[in-house]
């Protein structure tokens, strides 16, 4: 959100903005100064993400108009001038809902920028091969048996599954390759295989989808289902 004096100028230092975010339980700062978003705030941001990430431009511009007090017809030009992304605007809406204190719009805008920078670029956990709409076909061609997990941001069941990733890997048959997809950026994959929820665990053999487990599943359930599907049980 840069390029406009109303948005660029502000009285808070970056450190003071971070202190506000920590005091308001938007972020936590550990003893190693690692800053992460709280689950409570991510849940709030998730609500606004689901509401505004894919709405038509006219609805999005109306929301921008309501927040910044400008004509909806001017919103597109204003957004372009300021370089504001939808993710930044969504973070601002979440802040407006989450914060208890009163802070100038300019400061909330800067805080929204900080939040977007803190958010992980992908919900797929580190250590898991990430595939997308361009690469999933090659991955399935290269691996006769494959388990693909669909992850999303702002998803509590996804976080629960992530915490048990080691157990899931151990529960899968040794010859089953594991990959992950970002469910918010892989519409072709999700449409092709009928994915309607996250997390979802899809089991493939020879490029064919054999089984789809919807929602959070315990590692032992994933293991027993994969053994049944692949005839290893």
TrEMBL record:
SUPFAM superfamilies (UniProt xref): Thioredoxin-like
Record domain Thioredoxin: where: 128-222
UniProt-listed InterPro entries: Thioredoxin-like_sf (IPR036249), Thioredoxin_domain (IPR013766)
Descriptive protein name: Thioredoxin family protein
Organism: Natronomonas salsuginis
């Amino acid at each position: 959100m840069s390029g406009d004096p109303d948005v660029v100028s502000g009285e808070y230092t970056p450190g003071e903005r971070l202190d506000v975010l920590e005091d308001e339980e938007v972020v936590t700062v550990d003893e190693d100064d690692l800053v992460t978003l709280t689950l409570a705030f991510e849940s709030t941001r998730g609500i606004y993400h689901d509401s505004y990430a894919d709405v038509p431009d006219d609805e999005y511009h109306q929301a921008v108009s309501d927040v910044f007090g400008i004509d909806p017809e001017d919103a597109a030009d204003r957004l372009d001038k300021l370089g504001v992304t939808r993710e930044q605007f969504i973070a601002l809406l979440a802040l407006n809902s989450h914060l208890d204190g009163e802070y100038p719009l300019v400061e909330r805008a800067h805080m929204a920028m900080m939040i977007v920078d803190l958010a992980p670029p992908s919900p797929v956990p580190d250590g898991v091969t990430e595939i997308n709409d361009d690469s999933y076909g090659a991955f399935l061609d290269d691996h006769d048996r494959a388990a693909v997990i669909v992850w999303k941001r702002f998803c509590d069941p996804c976080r629960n599954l992530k915490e048990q990733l080691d157990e899931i890997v151990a529960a899968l048959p040794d010859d089953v390759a594991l990959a992950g997809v970002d469910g918010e950026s892989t519409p072709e994959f999700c449409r092709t295989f009928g994915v309607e929820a996250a997390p979802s665990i899809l089991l493939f053999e020879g490029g064919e989808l054999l089984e789809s487990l919807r929602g959070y599943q315990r590692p032992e359930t994933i293991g027993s289902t994969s053994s049944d599907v692949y005839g290893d049980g």
